[in-house]
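User: My collaborator and I are trying to settle a disagreement about how two of our proteins should look. Neither of us wants to argue from intuition anymore, so we agreed to look at predicted structures for both before our next call. Could you fold the first one, then the second, and keep them clearly separated?

Assistant: That sounds like a sensible way to settle it. I'll keep them separate. The first protein:
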Amino acid sequence: MAHVPSPNVLIRKLQNISDLTQSDIAVLESIQFQKRDYQPNQDIVSEGERPTYSFVILKGLVGSTKLTGEGKRQITSFFVPGDIPDLHGMHLSVLDCTFSPLTRVSVGLMRHDALRAICGQHPSIATLFWRSSVIDAAIYREWVTNVGRRNAYARMAHILCELIVRLRSMGLIKDHVAELPITQAELADALGLSTVHVNRTLQELRGDGLIVTEGSRFHAVDWPGLVLAGDFDTTYLHQRNARTL
């Protein structure tokens, strides 16, 4: 049977990473969301909290963040619609990072007790959620490699490639053009660079003809070149239909 993307962002995300049966889809459609909107830098859930829910992103971009003792921020992951950034919180007594909107976002809150009941009654759903969390960990490992071992030029190219592929898989962009209203300060915190270095690196990517920017719009005009510059391979995203070209 052909893979038909669902209008439900959670189902679509899970369809991207696994085969879903009609029974799985029916169970996922039964999950009750409490919708809530957040503004940029209005924390959704904070480090040290003991939440009784997890959230799925319906619209917008979210970052997971950590602060050093000196108050310096590191963004450790970006999350796009369909992602459940804090799903692991269902099995932890306290959260060890903060989840903050990078744009205006809408999320769907899902109670932990309801999720546990569904996972207990439907092992295939528990497996889907487990797979989603494992892939989040794979993305995190790639980010560690990106920040720790690639130069600034490759880091920037890599993160742009990743965002474009992830947004495209959710049907939110076409081709290689994306609205990414992420500030240079946020890119700096994600890539371990200064804002001056971020600005210079973006200029270099533009100067080499790899990207064109207009406001918050990024167009990878030379997609193969950007992929090469970022040492980017989609394997770590574990998407069923991911393509680098």
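The second protein, kept apart from the first:
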Amino acid sequence: MKPRDLLLALAVVVVWGVNFVVIEVGLEGFPPLLFSALRFLFAAVPAIFLLGKPRVAWRYVIGVGLALGVAKFGLLFIAMKNGVPAGLASLVLQCQVIFTVLFAIVVLRERPRLAQIAGILIACFGMVLIMLDHGLSAPLGALALVIAAGAFWGVSNTITRYAKPQDTLRFMIWVSAVAVVPLLLLSLLTEGAQADLDALHGIRLTGVGAIAYVAFAATLFGFGVWGYLLRQYDASTVAPFSLLVPIVGMAAAWLLRGEAVGLQQGIAAVLVIGGMACTVIRRRTPRAAASGERVVVESAV
């Protein structure tokens, strides 16, 4: 990888890792579903008018918009609002790798490698350690929502594999546009119009900054650069960088929010990240190297 591209990959990792702390800050001033809707609103507008229509079938755009934008991020934001700390959320959410592999086996009829099966088992054991951690401050119900968010992320990854978008930035912008209206409606129904109006009326500079960060830095910059890297290099070269996201997320939560990491949680983090590494890192065969094979790899926060 060229030095410039290496720096870009590391920049995306830092942006996505810090994003969990920014989400936590944003949720201090917004109801979770409203905050999620605002994220996608500003990620989509005015970009959709500048880049044109997506170059994939609308059913894929709508499917990913509902699974990723509404379900995954809606559940994640609700979970973090209800007590899941930023660093822990960044780690547990990566269970999406497990669900992506499982859905690929069931839906796409892909045959798992032995390393993938071993990786899933190792990561699951790490998740169990997190659940059993007596020092864990997050309610188990909220933690279950993060796992559910990871499952919906796996659903969106499976749909994206079918879609195979050539322009990941344009695809993500239209996915963002699809998510806005359902999130706003759900916010009105569950959080209430008054709560939404109060949040918008009392918006502070930190809230504006949080919206700007999650919309422009985490979504547009992150996905734009990630898509560029996947077009330049093999997925096996790019994908491992996503394993650094929870490490940055936990470090940022410790530095910026004072979130402590206990011994058991640290061991669990090593197991989860190591297990995920087994599922996404693979040796390139001579045939794959000769053909310049590309695989769509999904990672975002």
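Some points you might bring to the call about the second protein. Residues 145 and 238 are 28 Å apart (CA to CA). The radius of gyration is 18 Å.
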